[in-house]
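tool_call: predict_structure(chain=1)
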Amino acid sequence: MAALAAFTLLAPGVAACGGADDGGVPVINVYYAPEENFQKVVDDCNQQAQGKYRIAYQVLPRGADEQRVQMVRRLAAEDDGMDVLGLDVTWTAEFASAKWIREWTGAQRDEASKGTLQQPLESASYEGKLYAAPKNTNTQLLWYRSDLVPNPPKTWDEMIQMSQDLKSQGKPYEIDTMGAQYEGLVVLYNNMVASDGGKILSDDGNKVEFDDGAVKALGTLQKFASAGVTNPSFTNTQEDAARLQFQGGSGAFQLNYPFVWPALQEGAPDLKDKVKWARYPGIDANTPSKVTVGGYNLAVSKYTKHPDESFAAALCLRSPEHQLFSAINDGVPPTIESVYSDPQMDKAYPFKADILAQVKDGANRPITPAYQNVSTVLSATLSPPADIRPDQDAKDLRGSIQDALESKGVLP
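tool_result:
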């Protein structure tokens, strides 16, 4: 769900079935998450195609789990009605390992890689090969009340102390962020691990590493959750709930995605001029934080009848001009670095320099075909965060994550 946080979502709908080719013109079915203005991008690409193909936008369900399940089941059945697939960044390795998506090679790989930021590109790769074209990325920032906090904290310890001081003065003090047992909690923990230079898995993703940095991050998360600075609903909070808590006036800090900015302008006029942003807090004041990147990658199905047209359609949908359009109109940060320099980004993304800096220096979640299993194990152990026992939980996780890595097959 972390990658969906910045989306302006449509009402949930049922994804359409694959359509037939129309009068000899190949129909390229693009299965993608609900994004309010994505159809306009599709329409523009259809115009640019000049009759060589026609893209049909098949809207996936709203929830990331439901999206994945629908695609996995149809691909397992070798459904040839799916052409271009919108994959959460954590799914690339799984789909590539299962041989459901095609490798990007030659000129197509060069075009998809040109000017693309390194972290998004790594999220679209598996075992040294490119399997998708990064469409958009995402990262969380620190949002803070400048009327309460003149200078933003650089570390978790500093932020916790500031929050406790505000609380003792009877002022708004909460640190609002995601603590429910789901992917958002895993991202919160992964931010702490990466910022402390730790590793959960080995570089090849085949075995558990869970080094000292990962253990220390357990302690940081436990300290934060038990410091009396979170919202009473912290253990049930996801992205939009964190936004609402902060907008309600009880928060001094919020750790969340850029979608909170336009929502703040409309939903909290009394607060909007008091809220500023900064880089996500780190562990050490002299070491910049590393924040987990989110987003979506466009892959081409192994079973498509029209591979050449599918690659061309995917490249059009994530072109610089369309990434600029989607960033401005749907709030999804670009993966192509040059887009951030466009003057049109200035108003829509006043924080674009911070987004770009964090993505360039960001972190991916553990890259493994078994990521869904690993995430489930992590979120279950981390919840509730206040009850974490760093040494014992680290020992348990080393065993349970290795079991998750060695599971057979792909979840249905």
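agent: The longest helix spans residues 390-405. Proceeding to next step.
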